[in-house]
Amino acid sequence: MTDTEPNGANRELKMRLRAAMKGQGLSQADIVTQTQLNGEAVAKATVSNALNAEKGPPSSVTLKAILNALGISGSDREELSRLRDRADSRGDQAVVGVVGLPREPEGFVGRQDEIKELLEVLDPASGSRRTAVVVGMPGVGKSALALHAAHIAVEEGRFPGGALYVDLDGYAGEAEKKARQTPISAAHALEVMLHTMGVTSEHMPPTEPGRAALYRAKLAEFSGPAMILIDNAPTADAVKALLPGLGNHRVLVTSRHTFTSLSGARHVELKVLTVDESVELIDTALQLFNPHDLRVRKDPGQAPRQAVRATAAGIARLGRDPERRPAWLARPPGR
Ligand SMILES: Nc1ncnc2c1ncn2[C@@H]1O[C@H](COP(=O)(O)OP(=O)(O)OP(=O)(O)O)[C@@H](O)[C@H]1O
Ligand SMILES: [Mg+2]
Fold it and tell me: In terms of domains, do 260 and 127 share one?
């Protein structure tokens, strides 16, 4: 018989999920990997919470992904979903906000300290700082980290107002001039946000000040805190144009630059992955391709071999492009 009281239902749900995992000999890491393979990537921390009886019930989206990962269907699936609904006395209707977050990157690894730091800011219940900026060199993983942390915060139900996202794509630098556009204007960024909030083109104010006013007015009316993720910001001014006025919202920014003029923002500096994280990345990447490829997991000494092979394959591909022959690798840096 199932328990109808919310806490009891939560405990039973988690006990049954853990039993199903044990029965199939799967670890939490296996579940995370399987959700990625299914295109429903659930963060490690979210899977861990979903199995921990001390934590609240998972969202219906998380549970669905975990049930898919475990291959649970039919009446078992229905019963577990009912348990979740009973455990979540708030019901799914508690999260009614805007949903503008893109999917998080597949196979995310590491960055535990930085995730913790970001989640301190992405907590409307705490009175700490309201804006965090992830800074670091090109390609180091700022956007991936921000999206990953944002998904954890939303999955944990911290933002009943929802999540807004805009990619300012602010790095139309010399090397990328051909391939990328110039940073999007504040007016365009506000348009993206307002569209996510349901404002149709027909009702879009034509000018930037008009859009900014509507954006702030709408945010002030939100029934609960929202998270605003401003990705790839080129300047502090571009960020300031999107800061909310009233309301207990939180803002997460990624940029290659430190924004000293963004008063009160917490900067989290991102360095390259540690050696252990890099090994985990190679292991995860191999399994995303083939879940049975456990070479690196069984023998981490395999990681350097795989890394060298991947690099060699990349160089070989470069060789097809007459403008980017492998020879450039042999040139001294900066030439
Ligand atoms: N921790 C990680 N685990 C797995 N993959 C990662 C991780 N960090 C970054 N990546 C991958 O590395 C690539 C580059 O990362 P990302 O785009 O986040 O870098 P960035 O710092 O935002 O770059 P830019 O300065 O160009 O905006 C992406 O494909 C991303 O998915
Ligand atoms: Mg980025």
Answer: yes
